[in-house]
Structures are given as C-alpha cells and as structure tokens.
Amino acid sequence: MHREDSPGDWWPEGKDVFQLPWCPNVHWDPPAPHADVGPVAAIRRRSSADVTRVLASPPLPVRQEDPDYGHSPVRCTLTPVPLIGVPYPQTLPDEELVRSVEGHVEATGYGSDVIARVAGIKFGGWPTWHLTDPHNVLCPTCSAPCRLLFTVASDHTTGLTVGRWGDFRIFACPAEEGHEYVVDQY
User: Does this model's pTM top 0.90?
Assistant: First the structure.
C-alpha cells in the first residue's frame, strides 16, 4: 500500500510504502508476538525511493496443509476508500456522543460491531471487539497502549476468511516506531 492511497498519521516520517508479507500456513507455535494458530507476518515500511528492483513474478507461497484451511491470500486489487471510524461507545468522552453512537448501532440492527468492523482490509481506525469487551492492547516493549495499524477482516463480499470468521489484526506502538508489533487473530 502506498501512502498516497491511504494517508493518515500512522505513516512514519520518510516512509511511503507499507508491505505485509506473511506465511500462508497455520503456525501452532508461532514466534512472539504472533497469535497462536495464525499466520506469521512481517511489517515492512519503506521509502519507495529505496525500492530499486520490483519482482515481475513474485514466488508463490508454499502450502503445507489442506488448501481449504490456512491463510492464503489471493491476488486482488485494493481499492482505497476513506472512512470515518468511530470507537466503541465505552471509550467516548462525551455522553451525548455516546447516546448518538448507541442510537446508530441500534438503528442498524447489527450490534455494536457495526461501528468498527469494515469488510476486507482496513488501515488504522478502531478494532472490533465482538468476542470480548474493549481493552487496551499493550506494547510488549514499553507497555504503552497500542493503536490499530491494520486489519484483514472475514467477509462474504470480499471472499476473505480469517480463522473462524474473525479478524487478523496488527497493533503498533505510538510511542516508538522501532517497538515490536502486536499481531493477533480475533
């Protein structure tokens, strides 16, 4: 993803390319800070000026299990669409705003998850909490509350399925770019 396609304050100074290479196989004992039974991913933030060679045909992933089980992305085109995200009502500072968001949630009939869940791939915003109450995801390096960086969400429209119809999420420390990421499958 290029900075021009997904602007926001989550881009480090001097970086304009975001890459997320991942292993498509299920990892039952993944390295920290990855989630159990999920893909192992790496974050690459770089400057496009430093990319001197682009592979015309990237290598195909090596699958180690049943093709219907795992985390194999398929080639697709991303269409960036700017969205206005809303955090969960419990985290809002103003009672009137809380009532307004709760009214919207009730009107949709989809439950509280409707305000943060986006079909497909999402940069930034707020995480969904459809399985637990909202909580802080802490940086493993400094214990600061992390911000949601990236989500791959299961969705019928996009044909994506993560785990048991969940989300693959990456959180980043806002205090320091060099701190570890927190990867989970929710």
Answer: no
How distant, in Å, are the alpha carbons of 2, 44, 48, 56, 97 from that of 53? Answer: 16, 15, 10, 9, 49
**pLDDT (tens digit per residue) in 46-85:** 899 998 888 888 777 676 666 666 566 666 666 777 776 7
The conformation of residue 35, written as its DSSP 8-state character, comes to P
The tens digit of pLDDT for each residue in 90-120 reads 777 788 888 887 887 788 766 666 666 666 7
- Show me where the domains of the chain are located: 84-115
- C-alpha to C-alpha distance for 28 and 36, rounded to whole angstroms: 6
Q: Cβ neighbours of residue 15 under 8 Å, at least 6 residues apart?
A: 3, 45, 46, 47
Euclidean distance between CA atoms 53 and 56, whole angstroms: 9
Q: What is the signed CA dihedral for 30, 182, 20, 18, rounded to 10 degrees?
A: -160
The DSSP symbol for 113 reads G
In degrees and rounded to multiples of 5, residue 7 shows phi and psi of: -70, 155
Share of the chain above pLDDT 70, in %: 77
SS3 119: coil
Two tokens, residue 155: 């969705």
CB contact at 8 A, 169 and 117: no
Amino acid identity, position 126: W
